[in-house]
Design goal:
By secondary structure, the protein is an all-alpha fold. Helix content is 77%, strand content 0%. It has one domain. Helix 4 crosses helix 7 and helix 5 packs antiparallel against helix 7.
Length: 250
Amino acid sequence: MKDIINVELFKMWKRKIFIGIFVLSNFSLIYSLGIYFRWNFIDINGKLDAISFSTSMWALLMMLGIPLVLFTFLAAGTLGGEIFDGQFMLEITRAKSTKSLILGKFISIVGVLMSFYILNMLLSYLYYIVFVAKSRNGTGVNLNFEAYHNHLLLVSVCGVLFLILFISIAMVISINFGTFRAVLLSLSVYVLLKFISSIENLRTWLPGYYTLIDDNNFSELTVFYQLFIMTFLIGLMIYRMINLAGKKDY
């Protein structure tokens, strides 16, 4: 398993994926400089502390849909792209089993996502200290952990789980449909969830509630449910992924 993960990470390195991840992780630099130099097109009302700024930058990225498109494409290409190119069949001969190969690919993409999330938060914190802390929108460099910070951090974690869910969905679809159609179908699932989220009585039950709805209501019970339902669906998608890949005629 470890060798498979290392191989997958090396392939991503060769494809310059990590450069794109690093560039995207610097997204908060634009807002930090805008606050520091008081650019007109950067309009932020009120004051932000380090945690609020970091989680807000992650939430903004999620709202723009950039991580969703990026990791959906990466997931579909890693599995479906290699199946349709014939490379997957060669990898099976080197792996102990189809299951370990599938899990290795999945874990490697999730690992890249987690690295992206952590790097994004750390760089946002750094840029806050350098550019925002002493500006008119900053609260200084002291890090005071308040109760509402739990809300912000848990919502950002729910966003990460939502991305992992769509990584698994894209990989499942890509087994039979290839990269391009898997990306389109996965994004169609997102659009459908976004549409259903407009129904007030249903929105809190949807996986990804905190990502789909901007003016969401925070409660510990809702967070627990969201963490549970997305973890369950991810496990279900992994099971389906292994099952489909094992039955496919290569």
